[in-house]
Structure formats: structure tokens, C-alpha cells
Structure prediction request, 951 residues.
Amino acid sequence: MAKKISEKCYVHLNGKAIGHVSDPYAYIREVKEARRKGVISGEVNVAYLEKLNEVHINTDRGRVRKPYVIVDGGKSRLTKEIAEKLEKKEIDFGYLTRNGIIEFLDAEEEENTLVAMTEADITDKTTHLEVDPVSIFGFTINTAPFPEMNSAPRHLMFASYIKQAQGLYATNFNLRFESRAHILFYPQAPLVTTSAYETLKLSRHASGQNFVVALSTYYGYNMQDAVVISKAAVDRGLARSMFYRTYSDEERRYPGGQKDVFKIPPATTEGYLGEHAYSKLSDDGVIEPEMTVAEGDVLIGKVAPPRFLEESIGAGGLEEKTRDDSVVLKPGENGVVDDVVFTESPGATRIVKVRVRSLRVPEAGDKFGSRHGQKGVVALVVPHEDMPFTEHGVVPDLMLNPHGIPGRMTFGHLLETLGAKAAAMKGSRLDGTAFSERGAARLDEYGKILEAHGFDPHGEEQLYDGITGRPFKAKLFQGVVYYNRLHHMVSNKMQVRSRGTVQILTHQPTEGKARLGGLRFGEMERDVLVAYGASLLLKERMLDQSDKATVLICKECGTVGYRDYAKRVDVCPLCNSNRLVEVEISYAFKLLLDEIKSLHIRPQVGMEE
Amino acid sequence: MAKDHDYNVQAGEPVGVIAAQSLGEPGTQMVLRTFHMTGMAATAIATSGLPRIIELLDAKKMPSSPIMRIYLKESYSKNFAKADEVAKKISEIKMGSVMRRIVENFSKGKILVLLNSQAMQAVDLTARSVAARLSKEVGVTAKVGEHGNIVINTHTKNLKEVRGITVKITKAIVNGIEGAGRAMVVQDRNGEFYIESAGSNIEPVMQVEGVDPAKIYTNDLFATYRVFGIEAARNTLALELMKTLEDQDISVNDRHISLIADAMTADGTIQSIGRHGLVGKKESVFAKAAFEETVKHLINAAAFGQIDHMRGVTENILVGKQIPLGTGSVRLAIKNKESKKK
Prediction:
């Protein structure tokens, strides 16, 4: 009897069966050998799936592959001699891949391997060796020091915070018109770096600064994740940055030959913002560089044709009606015009870009984060004289609440504090690459450096209260930590409103900062006032401060009527009665009545005296 | 000294909202803390925490893990052997759990059930008793055959019917009361024995010799309601809510829970909290429309010409009136001269 189909070992090339083999193991060995010798492309991956009894060969695009050192007979192919040659730059990485020392494996082929983490872990079953143990982390996490000392969730948090860090994102930022950009004034390379950080040359466009950090409370101002920073440090430029925002507009063409025009709108324009708003524009209708601008100022003056065709013809064609479509500085913002650029779109219409810059000095409410997933918001900027100090006169730049450390298990943060302090005293940067040394050995190393410079080997220092001048009863753990200033800053978010714009449909206040909106008094907030029994406060929130409307309601039939000012009488449109009363209701209710009426249902409102 | 009326709630106090908030706030915490049961034996997991609270407030017809506590008459409760005998009468055992294999003989219309002697011994069952019970439950003639197996004569040679009987047999109850679950004798602090069981079917259990029918407890709300009445159901509901919260180390004042239990049972039946229960029974059209199924309520109101008397909270906020609660519950009751003239 012929063999069952499932007993044949089929070979699939990029998911398509192309034949079968009798001995899959020998076949795979052959393919791999050919690849390692360079007979076939190094991009070919081959895997034997034991459960399916199938061989899969993949050569297609889009597979994620990772390099491994080949091990045979219990020995790494990356011998000392080759490593030395590599060190001397006699050979390069390409030599290793071409000569079957390092190969790239994809996800399927990885299933057939036994990878040793280090050379010492190699047994006779081992097939590959990790190029470096750090490769179990990604690039981003490997830029942080001592990741192996932190709990895993903190790595993910660091990876998301570093994306928000301000730094020198590009050296030609002066020529770029980014819609939003932050430039840190004095970016520094971290005192504790890692191999990944150096390889990526991140210190060339660093995104943080080395802060002197004391692990201490400060009169309850750094509760939870709040931090306290020193006013003196801020005044000297700590974490100072510039915020750039680009406003742009285009002279659009419309069907019918009409088009937008950049110019100072004439006072007859519909939606004219007033002479004052356009006062900073130059003759071409666009603002000049280095002009100080504040809320409500127009940056680009533009007039547009009316939205509807009839309007332009309406006035007998004597003078064409126009509509103001100027670009105004966003509410709550101010600054200086940094640069103005005129360009042309592919459709040959003129485009203007105006970049406004404004200074962002650290203040209470700004967000900072270290490289260990430890973020915090500034709660207080403390005057220099109130900050604690050491006998040498060292004053911390930032004070972090020590309660934030044990629960989150970010030991790397503490190790960096100590390591960067040692690096600062030693005068050279230290390495904090993952798995490079045992933690205890590092502690000893840093302790010795600190001791040699007259510091406590554990990083503890006697500090004095800046307010009373008395020494603290306990010594504080103080050192240096690389901090990132994250782009969430109060000055970009803060907004207040007492009265303001309302929505057309509901007469309720608008929502959102851009529309000068109010803060929503939601269902749960409502429940709180109900539970408290504060009925008038609740009415004020829901009615008086929201969509109060006074309507006339017919005493006879309960429908909403109107006041005829010409005849000086109130009229009910339904029963022609003149007996109407003024009633204060929410506009939302009036709208509900109207909508119910539109469904051919007649609601009636009954009233009591 | 504090006087009794110092503890009374003042008129106009929105006790319902406060109760809802007092139960709702710890409820949000329970969602985040459901991991606490991990690692326990699968049989011991009873529905607890938030799922149980939801089950209670939704007034589900049957709890997802029903439980009975059966107290015994005095002569039984002092004696383990006698208590155990009662437990054996109650404890529900299905054929499937005490058999090894079932063999059908379609040509002879007979079914052979091979028993699992170990499982049989563990629950103190004999082939004879099983056969007797099978005959009664399935309506066939079951006899003890060779090697202690059970031979069943189906009196039919129809293939479908034989197979149907096989299925019935595997599901048949060979001991105890249907739905009662595994019953076990437990000793309380006073040294008295009672029975705990992992199922609930109190009506037949009450008939069992030795059971004190007045003291039987079940977490099945509707069974309690059927047998003992609405007051007992209210107490069970409150008790179950309190116990569930207590198990999660959440302390909510009993008065809030009592209020919720009262509200759910106030009309003499058990009502759920939600659109099919309490909220659905609200008086105001606007309040119902604001909650769920807006259009349905408005159309009904229009069709039947309903009047909203504006007595609740939601509808008064909607139109912009002061709510009739707390400071808003006070009205001026003096008539002035002008209004007398009218």
C-alpha cells in the first residue's frame, strides 16, 4: 500500500507545496549548509515543523529576522581570533554573515533552535548563541540604563515617555515648519549611558538633562508623583525649552473664477474682527517676523468669497461681497513670530506658513520623567533659599518622593542616581548596559569612586533644611539622574471660562479648549449634588449657567407662543389666546418640545402658580 | 446621650442616590480586583464579587452557583451518623459519574451499563439501588446482571428509541434529589450537624425525613420567595449582598443594602434594577425616556396621552426646575390674600 499523504514530508516554498522529501532533517541540514556557504541567499529561512511533518522554506518579504551566532559541536563560530580581527576592524559584520559565522533567523526557523544566552551556557545541544544578551530588549529600552534592574511594566512606560521627551529633534529646526515642535535649550548626554545609546549616537541630539536629585519629601509638596524643582536651577536654564507652532493658509480657487486673497480685510468684510486685530499685519496681509503676538491677533489676513452663490450677486453686482477668513492666533497662546514663508501648492495657489515661537520655562504643572518609567508633575518651584543644601553647598535640582520607589520596583532609578553621581565625580561617563555586570559589583564600583572623592559610598548625604537651617535627622539619598522634560505642559493646556460661546443648536456652552469651552458638569457630578440635596446649586449649574431660556407659554393650551412687539401683545399661534406667561426653562427642553412637535405629537405644558 | 431620632434620616434626604453611590463606588474597585480567586480548586469556586452582585441586582431566576444550608431536627443534628444518612438521601448523583461505559445492543434492544465500582463505593451506592432508581427515573426495567453490571431491557428494537434511552440513562439521577447537588455534613460552632449542598431545590428537600423545613436556607432568591414569601426573599437578598461585599473586604453600611433590598421587593415581587424592573416602573415619562429606549417611551406617552407630574429628579433637571429633594423639598404653604380672591 502506498504511503498516506500525511506521512510524506512535504516541502512548502513561501506557503506553496513544491514537493516532498524522505528525510526532512537531512534536507534541512543541506539547505542550511548551502546558505551558510553562500551557495543560496542568506535571506532564505528553512524550518521543519514536527507536528505537521512539513518543511517550510520562506524567502518572501516582511519577515522579522534576528541575527544569531552559529554554534556547532558545542563551540561558537565567533572565535576569539575572529572577534579580535573585528575589533581591529580588519573584517566587518558583512564578513561574518558571508562566512557562516552569523546568520539571520526568522520566527519559524527560530522554533528549531536552542539558543544559548552566553558562551558559558553552550551545551552540545545548543545550535546558536545570542549576539548579546541585551537583544532580549528592544532598541528603545536598551537606551535606558540598568533595564534588568527594573520591573517589566516600567520598561513599557519608559518607552512611551521617551517619545514625549523634548530635545533637539533635528539640527535644522530653524528651517523646518513643523506644526508643533519643542526644542530643549541645553540638551545633555546622560552620565550613565548604554551601548545602544552610543551606537545610535543619541548624545548628538540628546533629549534630557542630568538633574541633581534628592530622594526626599518636601513639606508635602511632592506627594504621590509630584516633584519639587529648584527655582535657582530653573533660572539657570534647567529644562528650559522653546515651543514652535506653525500656522498656514492657502489662497484657494473656487469654481466660478473666485479666489481667496491674502490682504488686510476691508472693514466691509463679513465677520470683520476689528481694526485692532489686523494692526500687526504688513501691507501684503501677512505678519512680519519678530513681531510679538498675543491672543486674538491675526497672523494671516485673508478674504474669501461668500459661501453661497446668491450672496455675491445679491447686492446688484456693484461691489462683490467678501467674507473674512483670517488665521488668528490660538486662544491662550502668545509669542513671537519666528519666520514667515511663502510657497506655492501643486495647484499654483499661494501658501503662507507662519511659525510662532514662545518660551516654555518649567513651572508648576509641567511633566518630567526619568528613564525608568518614573514620571512626575512639578508641584512647586522652590526658591533657592528654601531648598535643602549639603555642607558643600550642593542644592538638588529636583526632589522625588521616596514612596514612589519600592512599590514600583524601579531599582535601576536608584542605581542610576548612584552611578551618575560617581560618573560626575570621576569626570567620565559610565556604562549602564543591561546584563553587563552584576548589581552588587556595580554598587561596589560606584561606592569606591564616591569614597575616593570624599562621599558616602551609598550615596547618602547630610542635608540641611533651607527654611530652618537645621540638619535633617536622617541622611538623604542624593545623586544625579537623567531626566526628560515631557511635552505635556500646563501653559499649553490651561484654560478658564466664566461666560462664553454657546452651541447654536442647544444654547449650551461649547466644549474644548480651542472653542473656549466650559468643563462638562456630567451625570456623576449631577448625582453628587442630588445626593447632597443642594437643589439650588444644581439648578444654577444645569440651568442658570447653561442654557436658560425664557419662553412664553399659553395658559389655555400649553403651547409655546411668542411676543408680538409691534402690537404689544403675546400670541399663542395655536388657539390665538393672548393669555401667556413667561416661564424659565432649559433651552434643551424647548428643543425637545420642538422635536416632539416635528413628529406630529402635540406636547402641552401645564403650569402652577 | 444620643437619642433615637438623632439617627433618623432627615426628610428630603436622597437616600436612594446615596445608597446607589455607596454601593457603586466599591463596585468600581471590584472590577479591578477579580484575580483574588486564582489557584483555588475548581469545585470550590462559587460566583462571587461583582458577577454575583450583578446577578442579585438583576434578579436572575437562578443563581449561577446555587447553595443550600439544610438544618436538621434535633434528634438528627446531634448525631453524625443520622445526619449523614439524611445527607445521602439528598445528595444528587448522576449515572454518568458512577459508570465506566455504556454498551448498546440494538438487535436485542438491551443496554449494558458497566459501573465504576470505586466511584460507587465512594458515594455508598449499590448496583441494586442504582438499578431500582433507574427503573423509576427512566421508566425501563433495569436489573443487576453479571459482574455487578446493570442490564436494561428497553422493550423496543427501534434504533432511535434505544439511543434516546441511552442518553436518558447517562443523565439520570441515581441517588438524591434533582438539583440538590453534592450534599455534605458540616458541624457548626455549637457542635451541631447540618448539611451544606452545592445545588438548590428546597421544595423536595423540605419533605425529607429529619430536615427542619423552617430553617432551610438557599441563595436562590426566587425559591425563597416561592416557599417562604417576599419578606424572606428580601432578607436573603440583603444577606447575600452583604456577604458578597464582605468576602471582598468591602464595607458598605447595611442600611444602604437594606434600602436596595426593600426597593427591589417593595411591591411584593422581586424586581430587578434596570429597565425591566425598578427604572421601568418609574412614574415619569421623561425619566424613563432619559434612561433607556427613549423613543419607545415617548411614543407610548403620545399614544396614551400621558401626563408627567414632574415629581422626580431627572424630569425636573430636564426642564430646569429645582429638584424636589434636599433643600428643594421645602414649599411655602401660606396662602396670601390675593390668591384667596381667585
Observations:
- The interface with chain B takes residues 526-528, 530-536, 538-539, 542-543, 548, 584-586, 588-589, 592, 596, 599, 601, 606, 609 of chain A (CB under 8 Å).
- Residues 1-5 of chain A have pLDDT under 50 and may be disordered.
- Chain A has four domains: 5-131, 147-240+364-485, 244-360, 495-609.
- The two ends of chain A are 102 Å apart (CA to CA).
